[in-house]
């Protein structure tokens, strides 16, 4: 789009924008007043009922798993048994407060944001969307929130507990603590928590006016000059809304700083325990304030570093520093002055990567990675269904009982393994999810959850490159990952795997087990379970209509009823997400 140049052009852009923004704000506010209470009530009562209703079961089962597990030592079990009632008793209170605040925020902001999104690029019939978007879609989204919370309480929680009570391997040792270290750590916590809470909260409050003014200044400059986040037309309607809501963001930052300061104080006790030193705990208590001050300076583009002291709180770092100082002193006394002068003259200058280069990289959004995985599962699911590796019994078990390792774990693991094999064969630097889309460290989403997933996948890809998988082995792997246990090389003796190399078999089985572990962690995300059930339902109905399987009448009737009820809600949200979903999926090929 054309960016206004000159004072008059910028002034006209601002003046013409204000009535447009005010009308959208009023319309969105009206929808928030009408729809917000309904959505807030659904979220509040639904989440509170689920969490409080399951609270007795969670309370008893948590204690049972903690007492039964072999992964926790005796001393730590006793300590957890004493301290565990406090968070468990606070859980219903936190659930009620969190559901209330979350429901109010969802009911107010979703209709408001949907109204502004309706005038973005790629949306046809903007006038109708301005009135309809954020109404039925908000209510359907509130029901989805309750469903995701229910999935977490029913599925994810018990999945975590099942992992806790699993038997340990021969090379694993239980996690335990030393009683002699506890008094030191408790004392550090009692000192560090009040100190860090006061200091970090004071720093946040002191810099909050600067954050408010600098944020307003930057947003107003971008709004008038149509630069930064408001360069695109789709972002312009959010300009005034962002300026109005910026004080809430500043208040949220101060509140988040207050609560995070407690974590810094507790972490000081952990440092004192790990380093077996009272001084190291105090050093971290002081260093935590300096770290926070330095972070806020970088965030607000203030002076570099921090004026507060930042002592080292790891003995290894102190020893490295002393070793480095000794080396410097030794070189200073042994080398001639001329040689030192020559070193200083030819000192290497390290150039840092330009921020503008990083800003020009278009990062993939988390939903794009999510959509790639589910579309890949859909296409590979059809192939495996036609080959008989997935049966109607597998799908019916997952639909009715919500369990089925072959579908929820093995199918996504095969999709990821197929991507890794393709990336290894093409000698890609990252993960090749299509012919023209390569996922690397530069465009991978910034979220920590995805960072933890990308690192292991890149390592596995390099291992696959060394294994040199051919087409026959790849075709056989598809069957082995779906049907075999893959625990030891002898499990593949009668499988028809082309290679007889037990080392290669063992490495491939280890990779498969690791991928299944990654997928098992991913399956605990509530949205994963909801979307995967919808995927299995669609495959089930498609296979019945194509005559590939003979499904049960009861299951078929149930699936059709569920799909029909979800389609009613999706009709209200289809218009809300139509434009964004097209941009999200792009041209990514999922096979």
TrEMBL record:
Record field: transmembrane: 42-66, 78-109, 186-208, 229-248
Keyword Membrane: yes
Compositional bias of kind Polar residues: 325-334
Region (Disordered): 325-345, 570-591
Record key words, sorted: Membrane, Transmembrane, Transmembrane helix
Protein name: Steroid nuclear receptor ligand-binding
């Amino acid at each position: 789009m054309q960016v206004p140049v000159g004072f008059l052009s910028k002034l006209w852009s601002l003046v013409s924008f204000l009535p447009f923004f005010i009308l959208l704000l009023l319309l969105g506010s009206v929808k928030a007043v009408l729809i917000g209470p309904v959505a807030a009530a659904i979220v509040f009562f639904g989440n509170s009922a689920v969490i409080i209703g399951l609270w007795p079961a969670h309370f008893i089962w948590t204690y049972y798993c903690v007492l039964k597990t072999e992964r926790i030592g005796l001393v730590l079990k006793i300590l957890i048994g004493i301290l565990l009632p406090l968070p468990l008793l606070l859980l219903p209170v936190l659930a009620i407060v969190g559901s209330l605040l979350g429901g109010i925020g969802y009911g107010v902001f979703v209709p408001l944001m949907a109204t502004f999104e309706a005038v973005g690029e790629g949306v046809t019939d903007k006038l109708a969307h301005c009135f309809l978007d954020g109404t039925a879609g908000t209510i359907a989204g509130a029901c989805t929130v309750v469903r995701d919370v229910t999935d977490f309480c029913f599925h994810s929680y018990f999945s975590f507990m099942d992992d806790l009570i699993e038997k340990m391997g021969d090379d694993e040792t239980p996690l335990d603590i030393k009683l002699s270290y506890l008094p030191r750590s408790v004392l550090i916590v009692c000192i560090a928590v009040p100190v860090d809470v006061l200091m970090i909260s004071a720093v946040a409050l002191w810099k909050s006016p600067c954050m408010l003014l600098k944020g307003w200044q930057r947003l107003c400059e971008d709004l008038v000059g149509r630069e930064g986040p408001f360069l695109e037309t789709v972002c312009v309607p959010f300009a005034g809304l962002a300026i109005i809501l910026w004080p809430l963001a500043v208040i949220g930052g101060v509140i988040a700083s207050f609560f995070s300061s407690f974590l810094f104080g507790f972490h000081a006790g952990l440092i004192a325990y790990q380093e077996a030193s009272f001084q190291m705990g105090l050093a971290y208590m002081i260093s935590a304030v300096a770290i926070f001050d330095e972070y806020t300076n970088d965030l607000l583009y203030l002076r570099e570093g921090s004026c507060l002291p930042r002592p080292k709180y790891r003995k290894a770092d102190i020893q490295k520093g002393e070793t480095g100082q000794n080396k410097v002193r030794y070189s200073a006394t042994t080398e001639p002055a001329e040689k030192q002068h020559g070193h200083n003259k030819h000192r290497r200058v390290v150039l840092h990567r330009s921020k503008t280069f990083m800003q020009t990289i278009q990062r993939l959004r988390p939903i794009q990675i999510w959509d790639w995985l589910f579309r890949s599962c859909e296409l590979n699911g059809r192939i495996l269904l036609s080959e008989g590796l997935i049966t109607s019994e597998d799908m019916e078990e997952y639909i009715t009982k919500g369990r089925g390792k072959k579908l929820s774990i093995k199918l996504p693991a095969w999709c990821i393994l197929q991507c890794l094999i393709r990336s290894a064969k093409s000698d890609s630097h990252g993960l090749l999810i299509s012919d023209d889309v390569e996922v690397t460290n530069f465009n991978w989403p910034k979220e920590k959850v995805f960072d933890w997933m990308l690192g292991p996948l890149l390592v596995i890809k390099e291992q696959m490159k060394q294994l040199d998988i051919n087409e026959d082995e790849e075709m056989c792997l598809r069957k082995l990952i779906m049907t075999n246990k893959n625990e030891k090389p002898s499990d593949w003796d009668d499988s028809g795997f082309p290679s007889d190399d037990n080392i290669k078999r063992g490495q491939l089985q280890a990779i498969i087990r690791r991928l299944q572990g990654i997928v098992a962690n991913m399956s605990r995300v509530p949205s994963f379970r909801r979307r995967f059930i919808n995927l299995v339902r669609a495959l089930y109905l498609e296979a019945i209509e194509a005559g590939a399987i003979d499904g049960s009448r009861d299951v078929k009737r149930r699936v059709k009823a569920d799909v029909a009820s979800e389609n009613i809600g999706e009709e209200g949200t289809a218009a809300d997400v139509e434009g964004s979903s097209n941009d999200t999926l792009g041209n990514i090929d999922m096979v």
